[in-house]
Design a protein that fits this description.
41% of the residues lie in helices and 13% in strands. The chain is α+β, with helices and mostly antiparallel strands. A hairpin with a 3-residue loop joins strand 5 and strand 6.
């Protein structure tokens, strides 16, 4: 009489490593150690098309271990609801105050992202600018400013990076730029 074929479990219902570890309230590494010691839930490798196989764990075994450890499933308590007819406080724009504060922070971040930052973290204006900062300040390319420095048209110092004075950038004459672009002939 032939042996019956073992039934393959439906691995699509099994828990992934992060889900099993979360249910047991342990880290993924602790779960791996438990399985290696033979004390963890049954695990298998679930194949995924185009990806590496994923280790999954038997949900019944995970629940048995969670019950034995006294781990309760995490359930969020419902938020106390305001009475249906209660008026929600709003600002002059009709926005709730909590949301108005968040919106003002987002607006400030958007403004900061739009302008290039050329000032040091202390908030003081810097006398010397790196070539990257000078490029943001003037709108000229870094390579072009480096050429001006190399040709002696723009004074600079070397302090871990090539730096130029902000006032020299302000005094940079258009004629210097044109003559350099024309090949240095004046």
């Amino acid at each position: 009489m032939p042996k019956p074929m073992p039934v393959k479990p439906d691995l699509s219902t099994w828990l992934s490593k992060p889900a099993a570890a979360a249910r047991l309230a342990i880290s993924e590494r602790t779960l791996e150690r438990m399985v290696a010691a033979g004390k963890g839930p049954q695990s298998r490798q679930r194949t995924r098309r185009g990806k590496r196989p994923e280790t999954v764990y038997n949900p019944q075994d995970v629940e048995t271990l969670a019950d034995a450890a006294g781990v309760q499933p995490f359930v969020m308590a419902p938020e106390p609801s305001a009475p249906q007819n209660a008026a929600v406080a709003r600002t002059a724009d009709g926005i709730p105050p909590a949301l108005a504060g968040v919106l003002s922070v987002i607006e400030r971040l958007a403004q900061m992202a739009q302008r290039p930052s050329i000032e040091p973290a202390s908030g003081l204006s810097s006398l010397w600018l790196t070539l990257d900062q000078a490029a943001a300040y003037t709108g000229l390319s870094r390579a072009f400013l480096k050429r001006l420095v190399d040709d002696g048209k723009l004074p600079a110092i070397r302090d871990r990076a090539t730096k130029v004075k902000r006032e020299h950038l302000d005094l940079l004459e258009f004629g210097d730029i044109v003559s350099l672009e024309a090949g240095g002939a004046e």
